[in-house]
Write a structure and sequence with these properties.
binds adenosine-5'-triphosphate; about 15% strand; single chain; Helicase, Ruva Protein, domain 3; alpha/beta; 15 strands; about 450 residues; Rossmann fold; three-stranded antiparallel beta sheet; binds magnesium ion; globular; Arc Repressor Mutant, subunit A
């Protein structure tokens, strides 16, 4: 260990700035030739040290994987962005139509921010520059603080006539925030946006809009959208947030119904998730085999975070073995590593939901069957949909009375309300309270062998 670490230090202590998040191990290399290596207990599994010691090429490739597959960060590079053609087209159509604004809403983690991030690069207007300030709303924000953040990202050229000379002006570039000062109200915002809107294509993005608690700010924003629309101002507002419906995001939406285009972000389709893997592998000059690709797509349950997470570890596993083709064996390893990295609160919630002092209970298996059950809008599934996956997992026929109690228990606080119940008696539907729990449960099933490849393939999406 000491020898390989010494070699690692020599290898990485080059005069360059690289900050690489390599998962279980964080390596920071600074210009000062200082290398800080933080190891956690599970470091041998990832074998990054041996990758580093084996040569810089291999190590570089392993770190490049982390640039391509980013489970913890939204996509910001347009060429790594997959799918979402329908939603992109709808937002772009909205931007083109004067007086129209848009709201993107959907479950947590489906890719809303990623879409907002790549929008500007998809807006190609000849001879016009695109201005797309993006702010993240915070719970304590007010109308004034939100717009200050927007205007601090926009420049305004002011022209003052020069004293003594006719027809000459003094031009100065100022931050729009300095021009508007503290007197920010819907009408002031409208006037400033109409000036800025004449200088290019203007798109103002408010992400994490669900975090905004200030009702007055929401009302004032609805008034602003109405004023922009009524006055046909050349600027588009895009609201982005976690919600099942627009009314969950902005209660005042009725007053601006005609001006606000609603764009729901569903979970990603199989082909979109597959595209994430293909684009990533392409960048790395690697390839996911069909079996490996299908496995990752199926266990992601439409949530791209898991596609990135398992894709990342599977690619690293292949690199460590000098292989370019990523196989099912690499994915199996990767699932174990990815599970170890899942945040503690999810793991604790899973334990709370499935724990039983008795060994003959089937809480874990029923939860796995729920995670595989075909679901409809917003991830809701019926008890009948749990029957077939549970039968496949248990290897014997199960009918609804055999697991109805488990479903009920999962929707109660004692088991952490892992499932949310909706509907009326005899017509109950369920869904995972935290959508990110669903693929986690599938991965637990895959890692423990209770969900085999054939079960995973059968209950794919
Ligand atoms: N179109 C896409 N192509 C490739 N990867 C994507 C795409 N959309 C999302 N991702 C990946 O999925 C994960 C979640 O994406 P993102 O943060 O954009 O989702 P979100 O809906 O904004 O989440 P939240 O509700 O937590 O704000 C990230 O790892 C991101 O890189
Ligand atoms: Mg987001």
């Amino acid at each position: 260990m000491a020898r390989s670490l010494g070699r690692v230090l020599r290898l990485v202590a080059k005069p360059s700035v690289v900050v690489a998040d390599v998962g279980l191990l964080d390596v920071c290399m600074y210009r000062l030739d200082v290398c800080i290596i933080v190891l956690d207990k599970t470091w041998p599994r990832l074998d990054i040290l041996s990758l580093m010691a084996a040569g810089t090429d291999k190590f570089q490739k392993a770190t490049e994987v982390a640039r391509v597959f980013t489970p913890a960060a939204p996509v910001s590079e347009a060429d790594l962005f997959a799918g979402r053609m329908y939603q992109l087209r709808k937002v772009i159509d909205t931007i083109i139509q004067r007086g129209q604004h848009a709201v993107i809403f959907g479950e947590r983690g489906v890719g809303k921010t990623s879409l907002a991030n790549v929008l500007a690069s998809r807006l190609i207007f000849p001879e016009k520059k695109v201005l797309a300030p993006k702010v993240n709303c915070e719970s304590a924000d007010t109308f004034v603080t939100m717009w200050k953040k927007v205007f601090s990202q926009l420049d305004l050229i002011t022209r003052t006539p020069t004293i003594g000379f006719q027809y000459t002006f003094f031009e100065e570039t100022k931050k729009a925030a300095d021009v508007i000062g503290d007197n920010i109200d819907p009408d002031g915002v409208r006037r400033l946006l109409s000036i800025l809107g004449d200088t290019g294509v203007l798109l103002v993005i408010f992400d994490e809009f669900d975090r905004l608690e200030n009702q007055e700010a929401k009302r004032a924003l609805a008034d602003t959208i109405k004023a922009l629309s009524d006055n046909s101002v050349n600027a588009t507002i895009l609201l982005v947030g976690v919600a099942d419906s627009v009314s969950g995001l902005i209660a005042e939406h009725q007053s601006i119904e005609r001006a606000l285009v609603q764009i729901q972000m569903p979970r990603m389709s199989e082909s979109e998730l597959g595209e994430i893997l293909d684009k990533g592998a392409n960048k790395l000059s690697m390839k996911f085999g069909p079996g490996a690709r299908k496995q990752i797509v199926c266990l992601s349950r439409g949530l791209p975070h898991y596609t990135h997470s398992v894709g990342l570890h599977a690619a690293r596993c292949a690199i460590s073995r000098d292989q370019q083709n990523i196989t099912e064996a690499h994915v199996e390893e990767a699932v174990k590593t990815a599970l170890e990295e899942i945040n503690l609160s999810l793991r604790t919630a899973y334990d709370k939901a499935t724990f039983s002092p008795r060994t003959d209970t089937i809480y874990a298996e029923v939860l796995m069957a729920c995670a595989l059950a075909p679901a409809g809008d917003f991830g809701y599934f019926t008890p009948a949909a749990v029957r077939d996956p549970l039968t496949a997992i248990m290897g014997k026929r199960y009918e609804i009375p055999g697991f109805a109690r488990h479903l009920k228990d999962f929707s109660e606080p004692e088991r952490g309300t892992v499932l949310k119940k909706a509907g009326v008696k005899r017509k109950f539907r369920f869904r995972f309270t935290n959508p990110l729990m669903q693929p986690f449960v599938v991965m637990k099933g895959v890692a423990s062998g209770r969900i085999t490849n054939s079960i995973l393939g059968k209950f794919g999406e």
